[in-house]
Each structure stands twice: as structure tokens, then as C-alpha cells.
Amino acid sequence: MTAQQVAGALADDGRRRVFAAIVLGDPDVAAVAARTGLAAREVATAVRRLGDAGLVVAGGGDLRVDADGLRDLARTPGTPAGERGAEPGDRVLRTFVGDGVLRGLPAQRGRRRVVLTHVAAESFEPGVRYPERAVDERLRAWCAGGGSDHVTLRRHLVDEGLLARERGVYWRTGPPS
Questions:
Q1: β-sheet bridge partners, residue 158
Q2: Are 163 and 173 in contact (CB under 8 A)?
Q3: Lower CB count within 10 Å: N or C terminus of the chain?
Q4: Measured over all CA atoms, what is the biggest interatomic distance in the chain, rounded to whole angstroms?
């Protein structure tokens, strides 16, 4: 559970009301619905979302706040306000890359360059020569999510000067990792 997940889960007024009712001791969906005035279906959906965020534990028909999870979150150091957004490329990478797979390539060149630089740094060692087959194999892994295809990705890497090629052999250029 992260602070961002907690904030997202509590961003909705209905979910905040459901969470408050559970904090006050309402033990089940019916009791929460009675206290909040929300339909049982809305309460069940809110409980599921709060559970996904790690705020609420629903077990055996009983609802309770995950106090241990909240305690752990409070002990986890956060990013100081002055450092938020210190790396502008981080936001781009979170948007377009997940679990080592591309979700897509940004249309804007500057953002695309951030993603391509990341792919190049994660996939290719400086000074190592790679045959085209090895390059394609590494890039296919990035494209497993369907966000792009390996040929397009390879072309962009070459066009941006992050990979160089000669006679079917590729090597990494551009900024160091």
C-alpha cells in the first residue's frame, strides 16, 4: 500500500463515508449502508476498493480497518514536498512503462525520448555489439503488453541515436545509464 493508493481510495466522498463508518465500528455492509445512507451495492463496491488499497479487511462478513497496514504506511518514509517531481521523466515512465513492458509510446517526441532512453539503458550494455536477432529478442520482451511492436521500437531507437547499426549489428550509443 502506498500513500498514493490511500489517497486514491479516499478521493471519493462515498468511499470516505464508508471508511468512516467502518472506523466507527459498523461491522458489515448492511450496518455501513444504514449509517451512510448509501445503497448496499455502493457500499460493497466501496469496501472492495478500500480493500484493494489495503485500508479495509473484510473477513467472515466482518469489516475492519487494516490498522497494521496503516501503521506500516505511516512508518514508510515519503518523498519530501520539495523533491516531488524532481525527476520529470519518472512520471512519463510510470505512464508508459509498467512491469518491464511498454504500455505504449508517447506521441510527443520529448516524452518518447524519455521512454526510449530507458528502454535502451535497460536492454543494451554500452560497448557490446548485438546481432539484429538479439536486438529483436530484447525488444519483443518490451512489446509483450501490445503497446508497440519491436520493429517500430528498434527504428525509433536508431532514429533517436540511442542505437547505432551497421551491417545488421547494433550497439548502444547516447547517454550513459
A1: none
A2: yes
A3: C
A4: 72
Polymer length in residues for the chain: 177
The CA distance from 102 to 97, in Å, is 5
Single-letter amino acid, residue 2: T
Calculate the dihedral angle through the C-alpha atoms of 117, 121, 122, 124, rounding to the nearest 10 degrees: 120
Quick: pLDDT tens for 20-65: 999 999 999 999 999 999 999 999 999 888 887 888 888 777 899 8
**549489428: which residue's cell?**
169
Helical H runs in 11-87? 13-23, 29-36, 40-52, 67-75
Q: Cα(177)–Cα(157) distance, rounded to whole angstroms? A: 15
Nearest to 20 by CA among 32, 12, 4, 28: 32
